[in-house]
Amino acid sequence: MRIAFLVNSIEGEMAYYTTTWLALAALGRGHEVCYVTPGDFVLRQDNSLLIRAITLNGSKPKKPETLLNALKRERAKISTIDIREVQVLFLRNDPSEDAERRPWAVYAGTNFGRLAAAAGVIVVNDPDGLALAQNKLYFQGFPDIVRPTTLISRSIEEIRAFIEDHPDGVILKPLQGSGGKNVFKIRSKEEANLNQIFEAASGAGYLIAQNYLTEATAGDIRLFLMNGRPLERDGVYAAFRRIPAQGDVRSNLHASGTAEPATITPQILSVAEKLRPKLMDDGMFLVGLDIVGDIVLEVNVFTPGGFPEIAAMHGVDFSEDVVIALEDKLRVRTLYGGALSNHALATL
């Protein structure tokens, strides 16, 4: 099986990225791996879709650093591959990273992903589902009971009124964003620098204001779902608690947060179950939920991370489970001779 990973850029990939660990797991199970970026698709005049892919040229690195060094060292050695020579296209780019600097790249994964799926490639997460999730407005499609109270607006007057209605405080963040960038806690509408915060956070467009959950001071729990259900092996869940640094409202690991073991309770599993129907309906193969109590703060469908942290805590590398699931999908696709849609295969 050949797996192509779509990422924002080769230079930006890191050893601690879950994508890197997924690639290593695939290599470890005897598969071929290649990387593509949003600018590496080619649609020729005969409607054939090709990718200008970076491959490892037969090498089988076993460590994240070795893998990335090989990719970056061989950056100029690009092979042009017909997409039909790829069995799985794994969309692992973050569109919000490109929204400001390279807006043309935002929809490359979903647009070309659709063409790849039409050519018979298994594309995960399903590109039609991802197209619905290009920003946090997607979250509003889940049941009210699992979501914080939310306002979406670019009006500072509307946001001031929302803040006044929530004396415990409000979290303000961009509608299009990730990684904890421009996330602020507002304590009251009289906050002295509210105008400056508004300007900083609204630079990329609409804002989300959500009621602050006091339990969030202890962090949130990142729980992975695969094929719509909690990812688990031998009683260990693919999950961890993300603890914000003192004085910071953000628990993102790459924005000063730290990772600790998490206890997955029946309450948390019940929350995940409430999201399952829509995630299945949208073809979301691998998802990361950020949960506080019985409320979901984020549904991460593009590049949820945390496998290396989970492996360090529990000695379980869930990357292998993901690759095995992809192998199963390929067997089913072969068995049915292409009769099943990519949408169905994505969460089968």
UniProtKB/TrEMBL annotation:
Cofactor(s) demanded: Mn(2+); Mg(2+)
Pathway info: Sulfur metabolism; glutathione biosynthesis; glutathione from L-cysteine and L-glutamate: step 2/2
Annotated transmembrane regions: none
GO molecular function per UniProt: glutathione synthase activity
Species for this entry: Sinorhizobium kostiense
Reactions catalysed, as given in the entry: gamma-L-glutamyl-L-cysteine + glycine + ATP = glutathione + ADP + phosphate + H(+)
InterPro entries: ATP-grasp, ATP_grasp_subdomain_1, Glut_synth_pro, GSHS_ATP-bd, GSHS_N, PreATP-grasp_dom_sf
Highest rank taxon of the organism: Bacteria
Keywords: ATP-binding, Glutathione biosynthesis, Ligase, Magnesium, Manganese, Metal-binding, Nucleotide-binding
Gene3D superfamilies: 3.40.50.20, ATP-grasp fold, A domain, ATP-grasp fold, B domain
PROSITE patterns xref list: ATP_GRASP
Family: Belongs to the prokaryotic GSH synthase family.
Designated name of the protein: Glutathione synthetase
EC numbers on record: 6.3.2.3
SUPFAM superfamilies: Glutathione synthetase ATP-binding domain-like, PreATP-grasp domain
Residue span(s) of domain ATP-grasp: 137-327
Listed Pfam families: GSH-S_ATP, GSH-S_N
Statement: the UniProt record of this protein carries the keyword Transport: no
